[in-house]
Amino acid sequence: MAISMGKGSVGVLTGVFIASLAVVVAVLLLRTYNLPELKVAWKGKGAPRIELEEDEREQLYEALKGALRIPTVSFSPSEQNTTALEEFKEYIKSAFPRVFNSSLVEYELVGGYSHLFNVQGSDNSLLPYMLLAHLDVVPATPEGWDLPPFSGEEKDGYIYGRGSLDDKSRVIGILQALEFLFKKGYKPRRSFYIGLGHDEEISGRHGAKEIVKTLETRNVKLEYLLDEGFGVLDGVIYGTKRPIALIGVTEKGAITLNLTVNSPPGHSSMPPRESSIGILSAALSRLEQNRLPNLFGTGPEGSTFEQLANEFYWPLNIMMANLWFFNPIISRLMALTPSGNAIVRTTTALTIVNGGIKANVIPATATATVNFRLHPAQTVEEVLNMVSEIIMDERVILSAIKAFDPLPISPYDEENFGYQTLKRTITDLFSVPVAPAVCTVNTDSRHFVNLTESVYRFSPVVMTAEDLGRVHGLNERISREGFETGIQFYWQLIQNSDSDTVPVHRHSEL
Ligand SMILES: CCCCCCCCCCCCCCCCCC(=O)N[C@@H](Cc1ccccc1)C(=O)O
Ligand SMILES: [Zn+2]
Ligand SMILES: [Zn+2]
């Protein structure tokens, strides 16, 4: 049936279209006008800052440099520098005598090289919290570094070394803050734990996991836990006006999947129509070409952008405040960069491939490893089903050697003590907006979910995109000022956590 329209009906339709457009624009303008104001805590009025004497300041830099000189490298799941891990034990004992000798501290070694401190508070009615960090580092060779990676040397106000960002500055920062607090006569009201794992870089099996077991046998429950995370990002999130602090409230899940193809071996002069290498390569190519679905807005990443809407330049501010309408555009824009893509979907990374031993031998087997990082809205089971459908070849044998679902989403509401105490301490010190976010990498904190629902990831340092590239990369370094500010952060956080009430917030522009 043909549909014919006279001039009059065209006019009516145009009128309806213009009226609908006007309504949409009006709603958008209204929502822009009423953008949720960012709620911030006290402006710079937290616990008093540490006032450091010049010799104390030098002492804290030396403490970090000494730690960087000990090569506590995790090479592979079965190879760690245990001599360095032994040395690190003795090192922290001599660098932080007040922490180790205080009658308020119960110290124990866990899993051979990890450290657990229980700092006794005066009020047992308050649940303890925990600060977590790790002392192992990824390998580094001097090539490409301006200063050798295990020299702890300094240049232009920056301390260089593997671990200066990830994660020895936090190990030393936390212990140094406590050392200074004890020196000033501090006695905590709320008990807390400090956990220093020795194998985070190879999954935390003997360090963080053993710490969890130890605490579980004592029925310990935590008010909140804080581990490493992205920190205060400066110029990293496209279109933002100023640095922004992101608190990781969840972590992506992960699957490490092995792919194996077996086929009859033989002489290369008479190759089969399809070889194990060819079949495997085709499967890998299908995986790379067919990305898993864009799920932007179905996990907490939607909250990150909605809460930060005012921080974006026009017109992104309007779009972020109205994701219900602009989601299709924003999700596609985000997928254009590797870091944005990591936020919107489960990512697929081809990381290892093996096959063949000699130029004139058709190999019997070809293998590959693919690493997936799961968006918070997906499960291991769903992803494995999708992957099988994409590969669609029964000759490719799949075996998941490691797999875990995305971590639970920790609370970030106005009533949550841990989140709000962190937020307050961050705004006190950095005067920047704070928002919840998805952590796209994994940390030791993922082992602690049975001890508390409030697991957060945040590193107290301002990071540019260039700095982020130094983590696990070349010329990892931290500025003197950045390190000192980080210590101020722990100094304040420990004192702020003594409160028994959630910090009061007021609406304010920073
Ligand atoms: C007192 C001063 C404090 C200053 C702190 C400065 C810290 C800046 C840190 C910025 C680093 C961002 C966090 C990086 C975390 C990387 C975590 C990671 O790579 N995890 C691995 C874990 C893993 C998983 C499976 C097997 C082995 C390892 C990952 O692949 O996700
Ligand atoms: Zn780390
Ligand atoms: Zn690392």
UniProtKB/TrEMBL annotation:
Cofactor: binding comment: Binds 2 Zn(2+) ions per subunit.
GO terms, biological process: adaptive thermogenesis; amide biosynthetic process; amide catabolic process; amino acid metabolic process; lipid metabolic process; proteolysis
A Pfam family annotated for this UniProt entry: Peptidase_M20
Keywords: Hydrolase, Membrane, Metal-binding, Protease, Transmembrane, Transmembrane helix, Zinc
Annotated catalytic residues: D136, E200 (proton acceptor)
This protein's pathway: Lipid metabolism; fatty acid metabolism; Amino-acid metabolism
Residue ranges annotated for the Peptidase M20 dimerisation domain, each copy included: 250-393
Amino acids binding Zn(2+) 1: H134, D166, E228
GO CC, one annotated term: extracellular region
TM region positions: 12-30
Single GO MF annotation: aminoacylase activity
Binding residues for Zn(2+) 2: D166, E201, H472
Cofactor(s) needed: Zn(2+)
Catalytic activity: N-octadecanoyl-L-phenylalanine + H2O = octadecanoate + L-phenylalanine; an N-acyl-L-amino acid + H2O = an L-alpha-amino acid + a carboxylate; N-(5Z,8Z,11Z,14Z-eicosatetraenoyl)-L-serine + H2O = (5Z,8Z,11Z,14Z)-eicosatetraenoate + L-serine; N-(9Z-octadecenoyl)-L-lysine + H2O = L-lysine + (9Z)-octadecenoate
Entries under PANTHER family matching the protein: N-FATTY-ACYL-AMINO ACID SYNTHASE/HYDROLASE PM20D1 (PTHR45962), N-FATTY-ACYL-AMINO ACID SYNTHASE_HYDROLASE PM20D1 (PTHR45962:SF1)
UniProt similarity note: Belongs to the peptidase M20A family.
Biological function: Secreted enzyme that regulates the endogenous N-fatty acyl amino acid (NAAs) tissue and circulating levels by functioning as a bidirectional NAA synthase/hydrolase. It condenses free fatty acids and free amino acids to generate NAAs and bidirectionally catalyzes the reverse hydrolysis reaction. Some of these NAAs stimulate oxidative metabolism via mitochondrial uncoupling, increasing energy expenditure in a UPC1-independent manner. Thereby, this secreted protein may indirectly regulate whole body energy expenditure.
Designated name of the protein: Peptidase M20 dimerisation domain-containing protein
Highest classification ranks of the organism: Eukaryota, Metazoa, Chordata, Craniata, Vertebrata
